[in-house]
Amino acid sequence: MSVPDNKASATTTPDRRIGPAQGVQARRTRLIRIEIAPKTIISLVLVVVCLWLLLHLLPVILVLAMALIIVGTLEPAVDWLERRRVRRDAGIAIVFSVLFVAAVLIFALTIPELVNQVRSLANMEPALRERLAVWLSESPFTAGLADTMRNVKYDVLIKSSSASVVNFFTIVVESVAYGVGAIFLSLYMMLDRDRLRGALFAVVPRSHHIRLSRIMLQLQIIVGGYIRGQVITCAMMAVFMFVLLTACGIPNALVFAVFGGLADVLPYIGIFLTMGPAVAAALPFGAVITMVVFLLMLAYEELESRVLVPIVYGHALRLPSSIVLFSLITGVTLFGIIGALLALPVAAAILMLIDELRVELPGETEQAEDVVVRKNDEHGELEYTRRTEGMPAEEAAAIAVEMVGDRNDLE
What are the C-alpha distances in Å from 351 to residues 26, 217, 345, 356? Predict the structure, then answer.
């Protein structure tokens, strides 16, 4: 009987024990599998589709936004007529007819004279440019600029910018078409208000109807107050510039006044677009006239920003200056002039939605006023549910709007 060799068996038997270093290596090579839930994939696909539709349907969305702005601006006038026992369709016809007649009268009184003054300004341009060049050449710091103005070649500029001119007129035609479409869409929305409002309230749970009505009222206050304020301040700027330039003996005052009134739509930016042309038009008439125009325009801009705007706009926007500037930059970057016009009411609407929907921001804590508002909302929602039990959505929507209006009047 042979005895097994222990040494040989030790060399042939594998050692299955794993040391500390090998254990760490084994843990490092462990595979991690990430699984994405089907719900997440569907959500991502829906977000991508919505973004694609948003980009391709942007003109339609802008027309809808313009129509809602027109509705929010004109609805208070229609409601005022309704409170005086005027039928709603008759009130809408009266409001739109008055606006149409006013627009026709304004265009009839201003456009022919505006065209004549533009033609006169174009004929006077060489003489005005020469006088401005002489005034600039008197200073050694601006002598080079005077030579540049004398050597302007308009034929080269026209040839180089012909494509831009065509694109500009194309944009103008498209904007006019979109504006007309928005006007007719707003007319149909106002005529069919009850049915549209009933359809909106039908897809929202009844417990949220009071909050939805308050949001709609706040949106109407924000949009209507902003547009009416813009019309008033722009008209006042145009009238002031026309009186100032006419009193200073500067020709073609209507052209500069109309341009200044339109440019005054843009806060913070409009001051450069209004003062620049007015001061440039006054330069050929001497330093005294130029300084008078500059100082009076600057004084009016301060008066408008510090006194007129708070009075005219009231509490419609309630936006800090930093948010105003950031909103304007964002709007101009995304959508140009239209974005600048819509930036402030959109920013005010977003802040209002955060407040009305009680979105809890990370750095905020609930205040005592918030508790009172929440309790009042809960009481109003219970009262509304009791009053509208069994009613169709269209009639319930009218009651919700009435309750929110009464509460807003009390506050």
Answer: 54, 14, 10, 9
Greater model confidence, 88 or 170: 88
Question: Tokens in use for 262?
Answer: 């339109």
What residue segments make up the domains of the chain, in order of their start?
57-191
Sign of the dihedral through C-alpha 296, 301, 302, 303: positive
pLDDT band at 161 (very low <50, low <70, confident <90, very high): low
Q: CA 290, CA 279: separation in Å to the nearest integer?
A: 6
Question: What residue has token string 């309704």?
Answer: 82
pLDDT tens across 297-323, in order?
A: 889 888 887 777 777 665 566 677 677
Residue 279: closest CA among 260, 305, 307, 258? 260
CA angle 196, 375, 384 (to 5 degrees): 35
Question: 145 to each of 130, 132, 139, 287, 371, how far by Cα in Å?
Answer: 12, 10, 10, 18, 65
C-beta separation of 303 from 312 below 8 A: no
Q: Write 352-361 long-range contacts (CB < 8 A, 24+).
A: 352/215, 352/218, 352/219, 352/222, 353/215, 356/211, 356/214, 356/215, 356/218, 357/211
Comparing CA positions, the residue from 385, 386, 380 lying closest to residue 403 is: 380
Percent pLDDT > 90 in the chain is 4
pTM of the predicted structure, to 2 decimals: 0.68
Q: Which two structure tokens, joined as six digits, stand for 383?
A: 């009262």
Q: What is the pLDDT of residues 247-283, one digit of tens each?
A: 988 887 888 888 888 888 776 667 777 888 888 788 7
318 φ/ψ sector (left φ>0, alpha ψ -120 to 50, else beta): left
Structure tokens at 408: 């807003």
| First and final C-alpha spacing in the chain | 111
Q: Are 239 and 110 in contact (CB under 8 A)?
A: no
More confident residue, 137 or 100: 100
Whether 146 and 133 have beta carbons less than 8 Å apart is answered as yes
Quote the DSSP letter at residue 305: I
